[in-house]
Design a protein that fits this description.
The protein has four helices and six strands. The chain has two domains: 34 residues, no CATH class; 96 residues, K homology (KH) domain (GMP Synthetase, Chain A, domain 3), CATH 3.30.300.20. The chain is of the alpha+beta class and 145 residues long. 32% of the residues lie in helices and 34% in strands. It has a three-stranded antiparallel β-sheet with strand order 1-2-3. A three-stranded mixed β-sheet has the order 4-5-6, covered by helices on one side. One of its GO terms (molecular function) is peroxidase activity.
């Protein structure tokens, strides 16, 4: 049976001076302040859609990689994944997410570097969030810890 997760956002004002919030409605775990400045400048205390996408992608990739490794008979001890989501407000054709770079480090016993790299790529390709973001270039750096 499919699960539907819910999130929402509200916005007040115009794009450049306005602000809003994004909420995790299913879990009710957090509400985040959002604004345009957080998308185009270093910021603190305010998030943006790209950071939220990065968190979702890192979480999903970690879960997918765990499953791929376990299915290989080499379950991981630990997986740490980071995601860098690049937003270009001046991209040709309009503002765009122009790339996502995943960095993963995993502790896995009895697995060669070559097999580790193949499985890391397989997890990227099978990750549901990677599939949803297929129109964006997704790159990966993977290392055995």
């Amino acid at each position: 049976m499919a699960l539907v997760s819910r999130a929402s956002a509200s916005w007040s004002g115009n794009l450049f001076q306005g602000s809003g919030s994004a909420s995790l409605d299913s879990s009710k775990l957090a509400t985040f302040d959002i604004n345009w400045k957080a998308r185009t400048e270093e910021n603190g205390g305010t998030t943006n859609p790209e950071e939220l996408i990065g968190a979702a992608h890192a979480a999903c990739y970690s879960m997918a990689f765990s499953n791929v490794l376990d299915s290989n008979g080499t379950p991981p001890t630990q997986i740490n994944t980071g995601a860098k989501v690049t937003f270009d407000p001046g991209a040709e054709g309009g503002a765009a997410i122009t790339g996502i770079h995943l960095t993963v480090s995993a502790t896995v016993e009895n697995l060669s570097e070559e097999d580790f790299q193949k499985l890391a790529v397989a997890a990227k390709e099978g990750c549901p969030v990677s599939k949803a973001l297929a129109g964006t270039e997704i790159t990966l750096t993977a290392s055995l810890a």
